[in-house]
Amino acid sequence: MSEEATAPLEGGPKPEPSKLAISISDSAAVAARKQLEKRGTPGSMIRLGIRGAGCSGFTYVIEFEDGTPREGRDRVFEHDGVKFVVDRKSLLYLAGTQLDWEKKLMSQGFKFVNPNEKSSCGCGHSFTV
After folding, report:
1. What are the structural domains, with CATH classification, of the chain?
2. Among 32, 47, 107, 120, which residue is least crowded by beta carbons within 10 Å?
């Protein structure tokens, strides 16, 4: 990993290079695999990231990724054969995060358990670091 990959975004956290990782729960990997199979693209990846948006500053992003990882710009994490890709800028804010699958009585979906999150808004869709 290059030195550049660990440079923080303005005002963002600066984790140690060895801590630039995320973890994927078993239930999240199963849910992602089901979504990829339902879509008919079991060999594709799931892109995880953040965007500047929402009332608190950032929002989480989960998208299908059909292309190949961008050399020097993306990092791939694999769990039980399912690949998740994160761009290096998002990884600075997601370092140490666990992606989980949460199933409640009235809803279900992916959940980011992010130790860098300082606060979130009332809608539950945006956060600050």
Report:
1. 3-128 (2.60.300.12)
2. 107
